[in-house]
Amino acid sequence: MNRRKFLGTASCATVGYTTLFSSLVNLKSMNAAAVMNSSTVLNGDYKAIICLALGGGMDSYNMVIPRGNAEYNEYATTRSNQAIPQADLLPIIPNTSDGKTYGLHPALTNVQSMFAAGDAAVVANVGSLIEPITKPQFYAGSIPTPLGLYSHADQFMHWQTSVPQDRVAVGWGGKIADLLNAANTNQTISMNMSLSGSNVFQTGNSTVEYSVDPYNGSIGINGYGQPWQYSQLRTAAIDSMIESNYQDAFKQAYVDVIKTARDGHVQFSNALESLNSFDTQFTDNYISQAFHMVAKTIAARDTLGMGRQIFYIEYGGWDHHDEVLTNMQDMFSEVDTALGEFYTALDEIDMKDCATTFTMSEFARTLTSNGNGTDHAWGGNSLVLGGSVNGSEMYGSYPSLALDNPLEVGGGVLIPTTSVDQYIAELSRWYGVMNSDLPIIMPNIGNFYDINSQVGPLGFMNV
Questions:
Q1: What is the 3-state secondary structure (H, E, C) of the chain?
Q2: CA distance linking residue 339 with residue 113, whole number of Å
Q3: Which residues contact 100 (CB under 8 A, 6 or more apart)?
Q4: Which of 27, 61, 403, 412 could be bridged to 368 by S-S, CB 3.0 to 4.6 A?
């Protein structure tokens, strides 16, 4: 086995290829003080946040759509050949009315059922903001806007870091794990588990993600612990290397990471092997199997010694400059099926109230058609699901979809009226982050929310 192959396979066990080296450089101890910055006291209950990242920019004004005649006609006029027929919309009725009626994309049947049952909510017109901004301020350039507005890479990073004025490599999921790391007795396997490899969202100052495969779970070091003669020799060589003590700090840090990878793989694999199978059947595709692996990991929480976990699932391909209606029908069907399977499985183990899934996408799409698709925009709609969600509601303000409205800045691009910071803060407070620690996670939160408030910034979580 050559050096590059060894490093590549070793990294799959826990930390991912790039984060392995970043952890060596940081040596973790350089930023260990960050873990002690929180005065949060956790009461022993288990909570999981599942980030469903819809990469590419999801056309979310075809996910949640005004259904009343007047508002639908406005929508249909603006969206032209990208409009979904009014009769096809799945009705949802928020408990608190804004005087309008709404519907979901026709593929979202499970989401509709969860909304009706109070286990799902819509967050309307949410997007990356540095501070609140109006249309005149946008035109005048008097208020700063997110760096690289309309850029895939920049906007996806801003959603994951909540620092839209800069390009940084530390995500808010990673910062939360830094703060609440003590909630887990298991310090071998990271609080942050990724079903989609390395990502900024789960990278903290002293935290990296534990990467697992949706189908196979923890992969481990290639050939390690296998019964074949060559693998036995490899296993002995690796054990000899990582059980030795090294005076050189970098060598010792390197073998400590590899040892953690090995031990974590064994722990995780054994915990999942001890589980009973779910009665719920999961579809044989990537996103359903990713949620299946999350469900199994939650089921194994006690064996793994986990009180808090953050999961990351990225489902890309939403950059629909062409064939948007056909593509979204197929992709929403997969997403909806996976979400339905996941929460049915959690019901089996009585853990639906402990797991909150939220969607993120770098931006919505233009309300106007480019001919057969839509282009990059800004504010859009998101979904939050789970038993602890104050569901059957729409949070934030759903905007007018008429062109030239007070939020439309050209080409069907809408200024967000709810910030990513408010969205994140609501989830963070439910997860156990104290209000006083919110600025550590999102530096701009004070522009949108008074951290001394006794109520949440949006109210969609039952804290």
A1: CCHHHHHHHHHHHCCCHHHHHHHHHHCCHHHHHHHHHCCCCCCCCCEEEEEEECCCCCCHHHCEEECCHHHHHHHHHHHHHHCCCHHHCEEECCCCCCCCCEEECCCCHHHHHHHHCCCEEEEEEEECCCCCCCHHHHHHCCCCCCCCCCCHHHHHHHHHHCCCCCCCCCCHHHHHHHHHHHHCCCCCCCCEEECCCCCCCCCCCCCCCEECECCCECCCCCCCCCCCHHHHHHHHHHHHHHCCCCCCHHHHHHHHHHHHHHHHHHHHHHHHHCCCCCCCCCCCCHHHHHHHHHHHHHHCHHHHCCCEEEEEEECCCCCCCCCHHHHHHHHHHHHHHHHHHHHHHHHHCCCHHHEEEEEECCCCECCCCCCCCCCECCCEEEEEECCCECCCEEECCCCCCCCCCCCECCCCCECCCEEHHHHHHHHHHHHCCCHHHHHHHCCCHHHCCCCCCCCCCCCCECC
A2: 11
A3: 66, 67, 68, 71, 398
A4: 412
Q: Round to whole Å and give the CA distance between 282 and 297.
A: 15
Residues 211, 194 contacting (CB under 8 angstroms): yes
Bridge partners of residue 414, in order along the sequence: 408
Domain ranges of the chain: 3-447
Tens-digit pLDDT profile for the chain (463 aa)? 444 333 333 333 343 333 433 433 343 333 333 333 443 445 558 999 999 999 999 999 999 999 999 999 999 999 999 999 999 999 999 999 999 999 999 999 999 999 999 999 999 999 999 999 999 999 999 999 999 999 999 999 999 999 999 999 999 999 999 999 989 999 899 999 999 999 999 999 999 899 999 999 987 666 666 666 666 777 777 777 767 787 777 777 666 666 667 777 889 999 999 999 999 999 999 999 999 999 999 999 999 999 999 999 999 999 999 999 999 999 999 999 999 999 999 999 999 999 999 999 999 999 999 999 999 999 999 999 999 999 999 999 999 999 999 999 999 999 999 999 999 999 999 999 999 999 999 999 999 999 999 999 999 999 9
Locate tokens 């996670």: which residue? 441
Q: What is the distance between the alpha carbons of residues 179 and 175, in angstroms, rounded to a whole number?
A: 6
170 neighbors 205 (Cβ within 8 angstroms): yes
**Listing from the earlier edge strand, what are the strands of the sheet with 64-66?**
64-66, 102-104, 90-92
CA dist 343 and 14 (Å) reads 26
Q: How far apart, in whole angstroms, are the C-alpha atoms of residue 207 and residue 157?
A: 17
